[in-house]
Write a structure and sequence with these properties.
The chain is an alpha+beta fold. Among the domains are: 64 residues, Regulator of K+ conductance, C-terminal domain (Alpha-Beta Plaits); 77 residues, Regulator of K+ conductance, C-terminal domain (Alpha-Beta Plaits), CATH 3.30.70.1450. Helix content is 53%, strand content 10%. It is built from 24 helices and eleven strands. Helix 8 runs antiparallel to helix 10, helix 18 runs parallel beside helix 21 and helix 20 packs antiparallel against helix 21. About 3% of the residues have low confidence. It comes from Thauera propionica. It is found in: Membrane.
């Protein structure tokens, strides 16, 4: 009976994850805590999930990456990668991004290249940003440290008493699969849209809001009388009044105090509003806005702004900037912008004040597409030393001369001692939410296994694939993981699929390694839906994509990836090793 109750609770958890209104961290820690309170997980098991060696290694890797992502290497090489035809540029960019992502956090790689690719004019950014996101995923599947998903699966394996996964255990399958997918990606470059790339067109993709002050002489006069219908480069599309929208706006519409006027067109033409007294653009007069820098940013996956509105936060005080416009994918958001919950990946056009780039919370909240960098880059000498130290740690771990955890700990200490990484930066960007998700997921996975729920699911899997043998069950586990990673997050998919995979392998009496590996590869197979993977969200608004753009470009990649994984895994990791 307990097994069925646990499965029922997991179904509720999955439904809430798909719904997306509640943070995965809150859901996972609530479920893990609930299982502990119900006696399904002991205190020792619960606490040990958060001290798992593989989880500690992942945290160290992410902290070290904070310094490595400041290397100028990506900036220096990005321009040279784009020379030549579109397919050739995609091939070079994909290969380079995959190579770097094999050893660096993929969000750091995409974040570093997002600005340069958005600003370059050799090719439309929309032709490059989805390939960049895909390539960062493909590079991640080639090594243990390439993506947090691999380290998460490793932590599940260690927790279940299986041997730890090795640094290059993923390479024999991951490398050929990555090469095949990058080639397909280059050949399918025509499937991606060629969205506008100029700076002027980018800024005109926003709406601008202006509030009418109570003492403005415009109050009590019509749109026609105030001459608001024929502005240079701007068009009045609607008025927000007392929580209601007036759209379209007729020439006889009389303005009231407190009205919010919503304009579209060339946002850089905001000077057209200068001649209207009492018309304020996001709390500042047009004069002040013109003296500011217009900076475009993308909300990061670590941002405190996610799922909050502009009215929930004192945005101007937090960042010394006013929000001029918001864009989500190819959609320009308008009307009551202050009440729209922001999402990871939203693109904001900011009127940045002189202290904007001095705020310490910028790198946590935003990826900057134009303007100055957030943090000073390393010098060439510093970059060489940091990258060489990281390469040495990876090599010593691969040769089994020094545990990865120990090597990263030494490197972290060296970065702190040299000043290349500071305690303040570590504190601001500590991956607390990821630690909560993975630690809680380990507890949940243990409950699924100990309660008999995993064995129950394995029995159903065996019955469903009995006529197809163990290979059919392997395909089934992979497809379940693939579906989960498209619907929820990659780490959540790994957490929910791993107990099923392990139970299925034991039900068939075979080596669990191939099942563990397809969970790792399947959890990184999110190519179709932009909302399930962090790097997709990062490029979604910057490239002005639609959902169908990911479906068109991602379907050939997903098919190639899946065929490659399902053909190679049983060959490289046999069910019954000799």
């Amino acid at each position: 009976m307990t097994a069925y109750l646990v499965l029922g609770s997991i179904a509720v958890l999955l439904a809430l994850l798909v719904h997306g209104r509640i943070s995965p961290a809150i859901l996972f820690v609530t479920w893990a805590g609930g299982y502990h309170l119900l006696g399904l997980s002991s205190q020792q098991a619960f606490l040990s999930s958060f001290t798992n060696p593989a989880l500690a290694t992942l945290i160290l890797l992410l902290l070290v990456s904070l310094a490595l992502e400041r290397s100028p290497l990506l900036d220096h090489l990005s321009s040279s990668l784009l020379r030549g035809s579109q397919p050739r540029a995609t091939l070079k960019l994909g290969g380079f991004a995959a190579l770097v992502s094999a050893f660096m956090n993929n969000t750091a790689v995409v974040g570093a290249l997002l600005g340069p690719l958005s600003k370059q004019r050799l090719h439309p950014p929309s032709k490059l940003l989805i390939p960049l996101s895909y390539a960062s995923i493909l590079g991640g599947i080639t090594t243990l440290v390439g993506t947090s998903t691999n380290l998460v699966v490793n932590s599940f394996a260690v927790e279940s008493g299986l041997p730890a996964l090795h640094m290059f255990q993923f390479t024999l399958v991951g490398l050929p699969v990555a090469i095949m997918c990058i080639v397909v990606m280059a050949l399918g470059a025509r499937l991606l849209p060629a969205n506008a790339a100029t700076e002027q067109e980018s800024r005109s993709a926003y709406f601008l809001e202006a509030r009418l002050a109570p003492d403005s002489p415009l109050v009590g006069r019509s749109i026609e009388q105030n001459r608001l219908r024929n502005l240079e480069g701007l068009f009045l599309v609607e008025i927000e009044r007392d929580g209601h929208l007036i759209s379209p706006v007729g020439p006889a519409e009389v303005l009231h105090a407190g009205d919010v006027l919503v304009f579209t067109g060339e946002i850089a033409k905001v000077q057209a509003l200068q001649r209207f007294p009492g018309l304020q653009v996001f709390g500042a007069g047009a004069d002040a806005l013109l003296k500011s820098n217009l900076v475009e940013v993308v909300i990061s996956n670590q941002s405190d702004l996610a799922n909050r509105t502009l009215r929930d936060v004192d945005f101007r005080t937090m960042f010394d900037a006013g929000v001029v416009g918001i864009r989500r994918g190819d959609k320009r958001l308008t009307g009551q912008l202050g009440r729209i919950p922001l999402r990871v990946g939203d693109s904001l056009l900011l009127a940045a004040g002189p202290d904007f780039f001095q705020h310490r919370n910028l790198d946590r909240n935003f990826h900057v597409l134009n303007g100055a960098g957030l943090r000073p880059r390393m010098t060439s000498r510093q970059s060489t030393l940091a990258l060489s130290g990281f390469a040495a740690v990876i090599l010593l771990s691969a040769l089994e001369w020094l545990p990865l955890f120990s090597g990263l700990l030494i490197l972290l200490a060296a970065l702190l001692a040299s000043g290349l990484l500071t305690l303040g930066e570590m504190r601001r960007r500590f991956p607390f939410e990821l630690m909560i998700v993975i630690g809680s997921a380990l507890t949940i996975a243990g409950v699924i296994e100990r309660s008999g729920a995993a064995a129950l699911m394995a029995g159903w899997m065996r019955a469903a694939f009995d006529g197809y043998g163990v290979y059919g069950a392997l395909v089934g586990v992979y497809l379940i993981t693939l579906a989960l990673t498209e619907l929820v997050t990659n780490n959540a998919a790994a957490a929910l699929a791993f107990p099923i995979a392990l139970g299925t392998a034991r039900a068939f009496g075979v080596d669990p390694t191939p099942f563990v590996m397809v969970v790792a590869y399947g959890a990184s197979a999110g190519f179709l839906i932009p909302f399930g993977y962090q790097t997709h969200l990062m490029v979604y608004s910057a490239g002005r994509y639609r959902m169908r753009d990911f479906l068109r470009a991602g379907l050939p990649i997903s098919l190639t990836y899946s065929i490659g994984v399902l053909l190679l895994v049983p060959l490289v990791f046999p069910f019954r090793p000799a």
